Amino acid sequence: MALILGDFIWVNVFTALVVVYIVKYYYSWYTRENPIPGPFPLPLIGNLHQLGLDMGKGAVKLQKEFGDMFEIYLGPTRAIFISRAELTEKIYNPTLKNNEFSLRTPSNPGLEELHLTETGITFNRDLNAWKFNRRILNLTVMSPKFMRESVKFTNQICDELEKYWSTINPNNKIDFARWTSCLAADIIVTTSTGTKGYSMADYINSLPNSIKVKISENILGESLKFIESMYMFISCVMFYFSFPPFVRKFVPVIKTMYHKYRDNNIWLNAELDRIICNRKREIQSAPSDQPIENNVLNLLITLNTEMDTNKITGIDYSRPLTNIEISCTLKEIFDAGMDTTRNVMCYIMFYINKYPQVKDKLIQEYESIYGDLSKKLDVTYESLDKLVYTEAVINEVTRLIPPLPVFMRAATFDTEIGGYKIKKETTVILTKFEINLADPEAPLKLSYHGIQHCDELYMYINQKSNA
Ligand code: HEM
């Protein structure tokens, strides 16, 4: 009897707390200052259920209903979506001084738990640390010595790719989505860590009736696990960002996903630390007269050491990087580089298939620079400057379909857009153009696209290339 009474009290207390929470939630929502049109939110999840997993598609739907400026809740976070160019001027202000939107996101417990608000670039809220990390990126990924090395790596990967293509049984249908993600992953893993990625080899081996690539199971397993873990980290960032700590940690199903992501982060951090320590040892024990390879990891390890010819001066960061800083930079490169590179490749192939005359002009440009295309091409860093038409094609494609579905910013102080007051720390999300994939011949229509749309591109390209 005592137990039943105890349970009864607990249930009542719990119900009362839930009711108080819901009343408080809707009271704050109804009395919010300066409301902007938008869908009705639910406690804890906000409008995530209306936005869906593909933010692009969800936003298009909401834009049709609520107009070019509407507000929604990403969990507890209020976000204002804007899809009209004249409203974006303030947000794109390139200066740092008095910039009302210099931060990418408001303070967010998920990003804090992942330590992304004090490390790296994308979500860093400490402007001095951000400046330093931008410098690091310029001195590594954007340095001519890395560019040269990456052309060498990319040539090797393309040779490998051609070798695989020649062994594929013509009856096999290529899953373009998987293939491009493998290609992007191999390029990024190889150029950033100096250790070859093998996801393309694995994909070829998975095709029926193809000639199998011979590779040790251990090496293949390690490479695939690392790449899978990096991809998982990318979805983990969105997951941590979107779900508030309580939902993440206690709501069934979501809690299971949280544990999966958390375990992956523990594994990935330990693996990156192991890779960095091993490479440090290799660099230290290498003969001093032997040049080291200019992959990103080596450049990060030697930055600001006696081996560095471009030491950072003038700001408070003239010391070498810690393992954690190196690891965060590598994760950021994967995070920012894999899906973007893969999607751009898809969009370019889509348009080249759609406009064969563009493909012919590209081939002419390659023949004029590299000669007979049936022979091995000598693609050098210097020769890239001559690819004027190729660059124009890339620029035009990324103009037509920007590969990032959204740009996110947070107000750094109280401001105003389109006559609406925007409070400090409010998230502002800018939307883009979308191609009408249902009818590839139709003119582009103004709206918003999501990475998921690539699947439709892949299908379209698959049909074309198998035709
Ligand atoms: C074709 C591939 C890529 C495309 C289309 C692309 C596109 C973009 C765009 C549009 C932004 C600005 C986002 C914003 O303003 O919110 C951005 C930012 C960024 N990208 Fe990329 N990106 C690509 C590849 C890469 C790669 C390979 C890296 C790795 C080094 C990278 C690292 C970054 C970083 C760190 C930022 C944040 C910069 C900052 O906050 O100042 N991206 N990228």
TrEMBL record:
Entry's transmembrane regions: 6-27
Entry keywords, A to Z: Membrane, Transmembrane, Transmembrane helix
MF GO annotations: heme binding; iron ion binding; monooxygenase activity; oxidoreductase activity, acting on paired donors, with incorporation or reduction of molecular oxygen
PANTHER family: THROMBOXANE-A SYNTHASE (PTHR24301:SF2)
Protein name, entry field: 9622_t:CDS:1
Organism: Funneliformis mosseae
